[in-house]
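Readers of this paper often ask what the protein records in our data store actually look like. Such a record has a labelled line for the sequence and another for the backbone structure tokens. The tokens are whole numbers drawn from a learned vocabulary of local backbone shapes. We quote a single record here, exactly as it is kept in our systems:
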Amino acid sequence: MKRALITGGSGDIAIAISKKLASAFDVYRPNKEILDVTNLNNVRDYINLHGPFDLIINSAGSIHPKRLLESNEEKWVKDLMVNLIGVYYVSKKGLEQNQSAIIINIASTAAYSAYKDWGSYCCSKAGVVTFTKSMANDGFSSYAIAPGAVQTKFRNYFDLPNDNTLNPEDVGIVIGEILGGLYKPGDIIFYRKGEKKIL
């Protein structure tokens, strides 16, 4: 059976995606204690042990919203490390083992909006978007989903009524669409309640 790796394994989106993939993939869904995406040696060792992977979904995320002058430097850098550098580490080490692997990155609509107090999150997710396109230009099968507010622990950072948020299962549906060939490498699927488009 093909193997799928989902980072940020304890998160609601990762759990929903793993259920979507369970019938077609042997799913590896490590939490951050087992796979720290910011630790290159940890990433290398984990992928060497459990890979090669046919599908890699970079779902690990971090957010510490603060006004710039009130922000904590270590937490700001942590957001960049988890949200962007971790995507690079996992993608690179996964592709070193299997250049045909499909890479799906979980970005955010925040990549396209400079939300107040969200500097580290917005710029790291914007980096995920451009990195996804760069990988596709290098010939790899990379895609990104940029969801709006989703009913997860991060939901508390959005001032939106519940009927304007996606469910984690909605992200899993888009994963299925990507694997079904609905999109082409380099596509960013911008997805919020009532709106889905390719960027």
